[in-house]
Amino acid sequence: MDESLTKSKRKGLWVTAVILILALVGLGSYKGWQYYQGRAEQVRMAEIQAEIAAQIEDQWGIRIVHVAMVAEGGLLDLRYQVTNPEKAYDLFDAVENIPRVIAEDGTEMGMNDDPHTHDLEFGYQYFFILRNIGGSVKPGSYVSVAVGDKILPYVLVES
Q: Which residues contact 132 (CB under 8 A, 6 or more apart)?
C-alpha cells in the first residue's frame, strides 16, 4: 500500500509540474504577444507622426520640437524650429494657422490673438506659452499639435 501511495504522489507531482510549466509557457507567450503588440503600436504611431510632421514642414516651414509643462503645470511651452522662414511667416496670416495644442480630452489651447511677429530665421527655435486650460494636459500624456489644418498626433508632453 505504501508503494502505491508513493507512485500516486509522484504522479501528482508530475502532473503539477507539467501544469505549472504549461502555465509559465502560456504566460510568457501572452506577455511576448503583448510586448509585440505594444511595439507594433509604437511603430504605427511613429509612422503617422513622421508623415504629418513632414506635411507641416512642407506647408508651413516649421518643425514641432516639443510641448512641455511649465509654471507648475499651469502653462505649456510649445516650441518649433523654423525650416523655411518664408513659409513660416504665413503662419501669422490667420490666428487659426498658429500652432495650438489639443489635449486628449479635446480641450484646445491656442493664441487668442495674433502674437507679435518678428524676424524668423532658418534653424532657430521659437516658442509660444499657452495656458493649460483646466489642467487638461498632464506631464507624460500625449497631445496633438494643430498647425493650420494639419494635426500632429502623439506628441509626448515633457515635464
A: 69, 73, 74, 75, 76, 109
